Amino acid sequence: MSHGFPPDSVSETVSKIAEILKRRNETISVSEAACGGLLSAYLVSVPGASNWFHGGTLVYSLKSRLKLSGWLEEDIMNYTGPSEKVALRLARNLRIELGSTYVISETGIAGPISEDQKTVFANEDIGTVYLGISTPQGEKTRIHKTKSGDRASNMQEFAQYGLEFFLEELIRIDKESAGNGDNEEGKDGQRKKKRSDD
Hints:
41% helix; two-stranded antiparallel sheet; 6 helices; Maf protein; 21% strand; single chain
């Protein structure tokens, strides 16, 4: 890629994701918060991404989640900060809305924490991200801590780690499907039985 974007390590990960998704005729969408759009940017940096990338949402503020993520006022009032539960809910909702095979979501704290956020994030460390993946086979979550207080580097590491997490899960699903030998995944995320004479 030109001008150092995305970094070589990210480019390699995205290329592997693209290869598997294209081969399996599947799609992905993303729900972002702390990454600020980097997940989407990294994914669409690969030529031909329109064949497998459905789109995404950047729900940076809680208010945006009312419009874009199916949240209610009650959810905003009861919000206690980023969590695995929040990440999964974002992923689950977007998969329903966009109909993609997979969704990866993230919510975290890139830093710094402002005065009005200290009450909500009192027990959270800067550099913590919660990741969620929603698939036809189930859901997965993961927590990652960068141990850094630098906002920009945290955003980049959140996105890179999220893509690596997704690739790991995608490879696992691909191997399991190959082992079964009689199923293939469609763009709509539904299992389709291969004809015996294919």
